[in-house]
Amino acid sequence: MSIEWIAFLEVFVAAMLGAIAVVFFYALALRLLVRAGAVPVVAPAEFTDAITVITPREAKRAAAAAAKAARKNPLTPLQRRIALWGAYASFGLCAVAVLGGIVLIVTF
Amino acid sequence: METAALIVVLVIVLALFFDFTNGFHDTANAMATPIATGALKPKVAVLLAAVLNLVGAFLSTEVSKTISHGIIREESISAEVFPSIIFAGLIGAITWNMFTWLLGLPSSSSHALFGGLIGATFVGVGLLAVDFGVVMSKVILPALIAPLTAGIIAFTVTKLAYAMTRRYDNKPDGRSGFRWGQIFTSSLVALAHGTNDAQKTMGVITLALITVGWQNAEHADPQMWVIIACAVTIAVGTYSGGWRIIRTLGKGLTSVKPAQGFAAETSTAATILSSSALGFALSTTQVASGSVIGSGLGRRGSKVRWGTVGRIFVGWVLTLPAAGAVGAVAAWIVVALPGWGILIDFVLAVVIVVAIFVRSRRHEVNSSNAMSDVAESGTAVKVKRNPPPTRRQRQILREEARVKAEIERQVAKAAAKERALAKEKARHTAELEHAAQRAQRKKDRAKGKPHTLTRPEPGSPLDGPPPAAQPRRDEEDAR
Lengths: 108, 479
Hints:
The structure holds two protein chains of two kinds.
Chain A: H1 5-35, H2 56-71, H3 77-107
Helix pairs in contact in A: 1-3
Chain B: H1 2-37, H2 42-56, H3 62-68, H4 82-103, H5 109-124, H6 132-165, H7 178-211, H8 224-240, H9 243-251, H10 258-277, H11 284-297, E1 302-304, H12 306-336, H13 340-361, H14 375-378, E2 381-383, H15 391-447, H16 469-478
Antiparallel strand pairs in B: 1-2
């Protein structure tokens, strides 16, 4: 009975690297959006009985807090613009990581 | 040959029905987390899952080759018997799948399929017809390793997601933005599900076609019509259901936050996709459950409920032998009653499936009350409402306490200095007054006026010298 232990290691390493790339770039993008003063406040699409994460009132309050934080942003307009473009670039890199993974699987 | 052809047609129909139940059963794997965090509306989530399962089924064929050309040694089974064995195995898989679906038990469609096929082959042909090396390396070991892998990855990326978005100034951190990301990661999980699960059915149909000589054994790739049929069937199955499973899953996922859900889905998708590329036939349910547990542990202040984990694990372990037992019974009927056995199996399977379906209609579940089975995994980790501070937060708290203590010390020091100054000032004033009094007394004495010495008030800075010193000074003055 031959068991390909290396294959398990390959799966682990490939999955780990892929997941880290996607989460890193996405989280970096969110961080840069916050730095740029464009704090994303995304309320749940639908309040099913399972959701206890955020209520509409909490979402409103979060939006107000985000707007207040954006007004008090210590960055200069140029720095903000750079952070915003950095955020978009990070989102792009995240998408590239996902597409790259899929292409690798299809062509493997 | 006509009987064999009829049986192969029945196998294809049954395999496609299994594909349908697979989609039905596993919708939750992709969509429970985004529904639970509110990233997607349940109806939209299920539609998206269906479309991406369809697309995913066309992406890779490695898993189908594992099924059609690995687990069972087709060369050691005669072409007359083999289709009946596959038929019996499928009946075992479908019956177990429907049964666990009705009860909302955590189960794996993939393991039900493998269990059914192995059980039926074991009873219908014999032990040697099953390649236990392939079973071990492509089914059993991945079943044990994949949830662990997914859990470790989910744990790591959850920590990463939280660390990168954490703020120490109590300003908005923008983590609800992970809800956008969840739309993409859950789509990726649905795609991954299509690449792995739809192929299992393709593998079974290809295996049946090879056994009756309708496909060359050298080319184990599924034919295009098989790929299309399986892709469409799993997509239809995904869209038409899974509400029951989603209900039990989502209810346990109430504490899943968007960042955590995003990390869990990324881990699930990455694990399934990389496994599919290498031909490992994984259970997507188990991988999704492993990710949910791992991501829960990645949050601060989380604790594992080992009792729940044990219950889930027992459910997983039971699937393979239970489906195997049903498959074995079905194969025994086929072998014991040649000719009629297939018909009896078919009728029994139809009766069981219809009965389960009718029974399930009593408590209809739809998009308005649906929530889910990977939920069982959600309840396996308890997360504190107020998690303990991170190292940096502890440093900040310590620094704040130090600054506060320093300020208090400075204030106390300033107050003491002020008090000392006031005391000094009072003493100085008193001394001046006393000196003035003495000067006045001298003046008065020089003029010959009588004078009485005023003693300093008790407690005044001048009220301290020994009383004996006073007369001596007076005497000197007198002299």
